Amino acid sequence: MAKKLGIGVIGAGNISAAYFRLAPLFRGIEMRACADINMDAATARAKEFKLRAETVDNLLKADDIDIVVNLTIPAVHYDVSKRVLDAGKHVYSEKPFVLSLQEGLDLRKRAEKKGLRIGSAPDTFLGGAHQLARSLIDEGKVGAITGGTCTVMSHGMEHWHPNPDFFFQPGAGPVLDIGPYYVTNLIQLVGPVRRVAAFASIPAKERIISSKPRAGERIPVNTPTTIHGLLEFANGAVVTLNTSWDVWAHGHAPMELYGEKGTLYVPDPNFFGGDVAYTKESKAIKKLPNWPHPFSVLNEKHSQGMMANYRTAGLADMALAIMEGRPHRCSMELALHAVEVMTSLLKSAETGKFVSMQTTCERPAALGVKEAKALLAKK
Fold first, then answer.
1. In angstroms, rounded to a whole number, what is the distance separating the alpha carbons of residues 269 and 88?
2. Where does the GFO/IDH/MocA-like oxidoreductase domain lie (predicted)?
3. How far, in Å, CA of 81 to CA of 284, rounded?
4. For a designed S-S bond to 28, which of 108, 237, 250, 320 qualifies (C-beta 3.0 to 4.6 A apart)?
């Protein structure tokens, strides 16, 4: 059996650099080629990381590519993933996996027909901080989770992204762009969702780009940028999820989960690391030291200091799962359920009605210290 699966990437945009840069940290995968509808972009990225540049068609035909990573814009995730599956290759998609339940069900049918795997970001829930939170829940430290709050609010992407247009179109917005990190982490911590409700609005009908090279350009906003949601989980827990790109500042914690025996404070699931704390009933908050999880180790510079960044962990876990014949953690079932939760929040806001889920999923297997170390390449 092969020790490594060949990886090809479609989409040479901003996020591709992180995949190419961090992939060597992991065993089971080898980055081999980059493709893009813009061959100049593919060539530049391939040269940067000493890979080969391909057209999309040639990448899909390449015998040395086993898994294709779909890093295209969300609006074409479904079309590109469909082409990958139809070409007989496994696919791992950036979030959101697809933009509708119907698209996801179609991809699942295509994958099952050919015996292929589908995986999807985000994989930040595999980080040391979130797996520590998972272990505290699994060990019963705070008791059964009964409720919680999640908050992801800022003033949008037009202040830093060079081409922020797609963030403000259907298929993006804060729920579908940033929401996957929060919803996926909630599912792995609490379990599947039963039904949702939400309110939404578009306070600003256009945005002014302040980032280079397009500073001063105006772009239209055609999807809600403030969504306040309510999630009822299958275990009975009720969690509020407030997302907005219309907030300049706030004082809310990223994620708090309320249990029968205490409260769990979870850091921003947009990142792998962060501080985890919890209370025992009414006692003082206990901040926990980082446990010896390899995905807690600070390994990259960030605007606010060093951070733990292990993007591609989910891809590596999927590759090894294929070779080992076990389920992978960033699974299609998990991604599809998260997509249904997020799109149902938008549907509820539009219709004014509760929306019940048609899908469900198992919580992905925990990734403890031993399991995480097994994903890393030997130095």
1. 33
2. 130-264
3. 48
4. 320
pLDDT of residue 1: 52
Cα separations in angstroms, 263 against 20, 169, 252, 260: 38, 37, 15, 8
C-alpha to C-alpha distance for 224 and 216, rounded to whole angstroms? 22
Contacts of 324 (CB under 8 A, 6+ apart): none
Cα–Cα dist 162/159, whole Å: 9
Q: Are 5 and 318 in contact (CB under 8 A)?
A: no
pTM (whole model) above 0.90: yes
Number of H helices, E strands in the chain: 11, 19
Output the CA–CA distances (angstroms, integers) from residue 53 to 28, 144, 185, in the order listed: 22, 50, 34
Radius of gyration of the chain (CA): 20
> pLDDT at position 378, please?
85
| Helix, strand or coil, per DSSP, at residue 39 | helix
CB 230 within 8 A of CB 198: yes
Distance CA 91, CA 93 (A): 6
Report the pLDDT value the prediction gives residue 2, as an integer from 0 to 100. 65
pLDDT the model gives residue 61: 98
| C-alpha neighbours within 13 Å on the C-beta side of residue 18 | 18
The single-letter DSSP state of residue 26 is: B
Which has the closest alpha carbon to 290: 278, 303, 273? 273
Mean pLDDT for each consecutive 10-residue tract of the chain (379 residues)? 89 95 98 98 98 98 98 94 98 96 98 98 98 97 97 93 90 93 98 98 96 94 97 98 97 97 97 95 85 94 88 98 98 98 98 98 97 93
**Listed residue (338, 289, 77, 326) closest to 187, CA to CA:** 338
Candidates 247, 368, 315; CA nearest to 92 is 315
Token duo for residue 368: 């403890």
Give the DSSP letter of residue 128. H
pLDDT of residue 288: 85
CB atoms within 10 A of CB 200: 21
